[in-house]
Amino acid sequence: ISERVDQVLTDCLTNLIFPRLSQPISLTVCVKLMTFLRRLGVPDLEIRRLFLCRKLESLELVLTETAKAQSPYSVLSKAISAFKVHLSEIVLRFEACFPLTDDEYVAELQSWVLDRVSAFSSVFAKQLHYINSGAELASLANQLEHLSPSLGQVSADFTPLLVPIIIKRAEELFTTQLRLANETYLAAMGTQVWSHASSTTQKSPVDGGVPMQLLQFLPLAYIANGILNACNEIRKCAFGALGVTCESHIDRLLTTVALEIEN
């Protein structure tokens, strides 16, 4: 009889308890499962490890599915949504099943969450490198803003760690547009036909003393349009920290152009 009971309990754990823990479950069901394991005499340490291990499998399965999306933007967008729902749920379930008055429990949960955050941040930074649109970058930044309160409720908000990564990518998009503008300018300068303007063909300066010949200088128009394109590219995700950096990039570009025209 004892062997039969052990076999039934083993089958119950393998075919019912473990699979249910690996799935999204309600708080009531989660508490009942933990209570059942305690009544079987399973130590709390083993129950906590089992819980976190199964929830890790569940979270990784969800994130693996998001990685199958067709574009980097879709991958990141779905990953943010999945993390928002599942990480908060896991932490809340853990807090309900295990008293966080015990420092050991708190440290165990914090370590688990930290590992998940580290893994997510690594994937986020890797995929963000393939985002080539300022609009998509702004959308991801907005989604992180909505993720922050959700994780903050369970003391797991890590979104400030991702802001520097987004700012860096925005700067890269900005400098890419400036680089393209400079390349177009240099190509135009290579085909520019120079001629000496006679006094009869020179036109009077306009508003502030800018010569009309300069306004009609096509390579300069390419530079102006390039700067506008660069600003428009990051317009929706223009973090304050980008101000000084972008100004410096523009200043260097215009200095290079001015020296080129002068020579």
Fraction of residues in helices? over 70%
Average of per-residue pLDDT values: 82
What is the element string, with H for helices and E for strands? HHHHHHHHHH
Structural class: mainly alpha
The DSSP helix count reads: 10
From the alpha-carbon coordinates, what is the Rg to the nearest angstrom?
A: 29 Å
State the main characteristics.
75% helix; 263 residues; mainly alpha; single chain
Quick gist of this model?
This protein is mainly alpha-helical and 263 residues long. It has helices spanning 2-21, 27-39, 44-66, 72-97, 103-128, 134-152, 163-191, 212-215, 218-233, 242-262.
Please write out the topology:
Layout: H1 2-21, H2 27-39, H3 44-66, H4 72-97, H5 103-128, H6 134-152, H7 163-191, H8 212-215, H9 218-233, H10 242-262
Helix pairs in contact: 2-4, 3-4, 4-5, 4-6, 7-9, 7-10
Description of the molecule:
The protein is elongated and about 100 Å long. With 263 residues, the chain is mainly α. It has ten helices and no strands. Helix 2 crosses helix 4, helix 3 (44-66) runs antiparallel to helix 4 (72-97) and helix 7 packs parallel to helix 10.
